[in-house]
Amino acid sequence: MSHKNREEQTVRENMHEIIFGAHTFYGWLFDMALLVVIVLSVISNSLETVAGVKDLWADGLFWASWVFTGLFTVEYALRIYCVKKPWRFVFSFWGIVDLLAILPEYLIFLFFSSGGHASAFAAVRSLRLLRVFRILNLSWFQREGEDLGNAIWRARGKVVVFVMVVMIIVTIAGTVMYDVESTFDPNSKFTSIPMGIYWAIVTMTTVGFGDIVPKTTGGQFISAILILVGYSLIIVPTGFVSAEVLDRKRRRVISTVSCPSCFTEDHDDDAVYCKYCGGEM
Amino acid sequence: MSHKNREEQTVRENMHEIIFGAHTFYGWLFDMALLVVIVLSVISNSLETVAGVKDLWADGLFWASWVFTGLFTVEYALRIYCVKKPWRFVFSFWGIVDLLAILPEYLIFLFFSSGGHASAFAAVRSLRLLRVFRILNLSWFQREGEDLGNAIWRARGKVVVFVMVVMIIVTIAGTVMYDVESTFDPNSKFTSIPMGIYWAIVTMTTVGFGDIVPKTTGGQFISAILILVGYSLIIVPTGFVSAEVLDRKRRRVISTVSCPSCFTEDHDDDAVYCKYCGGEM
Amino acid sequence: MSHKNREEQTVRENMHEIIFGAHTFYGWLFDMALLVVIVLSVISNSLETVAGVKDLWADGLFWASWVFTGLFTVEYALRIYCVKKPWRFVFSFWGIVDLLAILPEYLIFLFFSSGGHASAFAAVRSLRLLRVFRILNLSWFQREGEDLGNAIWRARGKVVVFVMVVMIIVTIAGTVMYDVESTFDPNSKFTSIPMGIYWAIVTMTTVGFGDIVPKTTGGQFISAILILVGYSLIIVPTGFVSAEVLDRKRRRVISTVSCPSCFTEDHDDDAVYCKYCGGEM
Amino acid sequence: MSHKNREEQTVRENMHEIIFGAHTFYGWLFDMALLVVIVLSVISNSLETVAGVKDLWADGLFWASWVFTGLFTVEYALRIYCVKKPWRFVFSFWGIVDLLAILPEYLIFLFFSSGGHASAFAAVRSLRLLRVFRILNLSWFQREGEDLGNAIWRARGKVVVFVMVVMIIVTIAGTVMYDVESTFDPNSKFTSIPMGIYWAIVTMTTVGFGDIVPKTTGGQFISAILILVGYSLIIVPTGFVSAEVLDRKRRRVISTVSCPSCFTEDHDDDAVYCKYCGGEM
Predict the structure, then answer these.
(1) Separation in Å, CA of B281 to nearest CA in chain C
(2) How confident is the model at residue D73 (pLDDT cuts 50, 70, 90)?
(3) Domain extent for D127
């Protein structure tokens, strides 16, 4: 390996630590800067759709949009440059998210440069926010995020069963409501079974928009029952997540230490002597 | 028993294992296929009621409906064939659900073949989804379902008391609101006490459709109190289910240690002597 | 005491046991019958206000109303007859509730016999439902009701603080929203500060009727913050009630038994031998 | 120090105990009186904005407003008088809140004496309610408030992560909904991305005003998913707060036993030897 290559190698490694890591000061600074740019770019994109703001600052927002895209493009290039296996990165989850953060801007420029309708890409652009998770994951809140994720993961079986039970109930309730309402109310907004299911989801989760409401006595009676069932159901998974969290908390505190003399467990983290045999820990 | 009978017997037993069981590969495959067919038939039935879709695919959906019914009929016949006591199956809970999954189609064909209004049967048809519970119960999530069911079952006393308290509160609140609103607002949508109770249920559970709202100052004041009561009440049963779940979890953790003398389980982690026989652990 | 008096005394005592008690078969039967009559009378009163039903069954409902009132009057008289200190009963909480269950009917008859507007009394009439609590309290669910009541009672300090915090937040939020909305939107439905507070309560508790909604950008921004605060706040008291329930549960299971040999506690209810010293319990 | 000065010193100290303290009877009385005046002044300010009430009691409310301001001014002067470092108090958090409680009234008098629009100050005036927290903090509920505060504080990491996750989800959901709805529904109320985010917050937290609702099939489908995600998400932090509260409670229970040798606390109920010094318990 030539001297130049070795030097480049070191540059790459340092860059990798800054761009992908978060333990060094410059890595932390890079993450912070990236976070600010992401949030600013999302705010700027949002403002572009507000009628009053667009009229006033159209030019500013247009240029801001390109500045952000430029920064993200440079960042994307640097990421590819400093990883050891560029293609693997490009096709990884975060690689695709990074690409999606910049691609829409170029596509809009190429195909809608005359100012045509480009909003279909705005949604893709908002996926940029997903990148915030990467930053969070790297540096702060990692343990908190892990705890939350673990609790959900460990309760996943119950959550899946719960969601399936909810789906079955809303499907049956939506069908019954469509039947009852569309039969007895000619102007019913329950125009189809999928509409009934949409209403049942909105109702059972206590969102209750009120755009579609039962007008017939029978429909209102069935609604009341569905609402009470939904109100009771939400209680159950809450209890399970609470239990998972608490259980995990207890295990972490307890099961890590065991007495070297009598091999008992269940000692606190700050125990100096065994609480059962009095032997030194 | 003749050879042929014995052979038939074996065929029946194998079929029983495939159709009713879930522990063999073919049993799992059968359940999966059934699950897919049930979900597809429900989606197909739902789409039939969507104006735009019906116009486009009317024929396709009509034939799909009959294909699904045919499959369910064959399945129903096979279930009757391979159980030992057919009549007991037919009048069992799942036997009736299976019959309700196919009957409406035939009744619609017989009585509404001219294309008349058949939606009354659509609701019955959606009961097919209940069959998903049987599949779930057999194969996956059995333990999760059991846990959920147990937690609800053990908290049933509290849930009943809670629901009764809620019913009494909504009845009184609904009556009071009907009085207040219908007295002071001539165009009130609180047209009767049952309507007031419907409103109270919708409000207290925080669904809040907004189709019926208090217009008078007195009514708004009573609403505010009812809402705050409802907001506080939901807390209580949540706590009880959490406690039930956690309690059960703790017991399960405990029961892994068993006494070497009398082989009983259910001992605490820190037990030195067996609490049943007094033998050293 | 004459023989007749003693006989009357016995009759009274037996009646007291049937009417006020719930441990004998006839006491249970009386409670059940009373429960049915109360529920029927409330349903009958509710139906009286439904336009369609009233037209059809006006006479039936009128007579039913008097039959129920007659039964409650007889019951009230019997209660007074068989208690030892009638006046104390009359002015007790349940005595007043019992009187309120029959009084409105007679007052309506006296003052509105010409068929005038009597709905003001309907609300009082619905207080009859409170009597269901007495029955529940006596016989079934007593322990469940006690548990629920205890959990709420023990968490009362937190509930009061929580309600006060909520009241302060909704008052400030309601005032701010009134200012913002009524200043920038001339047709605002935020017509006064009390209206703003009503809106804030409806919003923060996630009821969200939608009859009053912010129209200005500023108002929508403040709403979004208020909603997120409300969404986060509800979590807190839930946790506290869970903790109270669980704590109480643990104490009940644990602290009742202590070992007679080594005086240790923390034994399960079903322990035969002490888990610490092996001595018989 | 002269006799007069010393006397003044004593007067100041006594006043300080009454005004700032809550442990003496007069201190309690002062707090109670202040609480009543604050609540009355807020009610009076609220009523001023109600059209009907203002017409009737305009003069009364005007004078009441000045009486309350006068009382608060005297109180503010006394507070400055009896603290040792007046300027430090004036620029402290509570000093500013106290000033904000009286300043608006004088500013309105100076600049809007002709009866002009003064509502911008009404909001500031409502900050008076914050002073209730000071009273609560001093006297009652201090422990309850502390417990609530501690539980939130200890779960702050999770709450921050949770709020960030919610913010990211509502931003993406709001952008997607704006795209879908504004593309397919020309009269859509999803007029901009910020509007979409506002809708997503209102929906995901189950408030569901219903002022903005999806009209397109795609929008309703995305809504249903967002609602189910929101419904599932609220469960998670609830569990964490429950766990924090319970954990804290357990620790408090534990710490009542103290080691007879080294006087340390924080021992488990079943400890036989001190975990810090190894001495027998």
Answers:
(1) 9
(2) very high
(3) 3-137
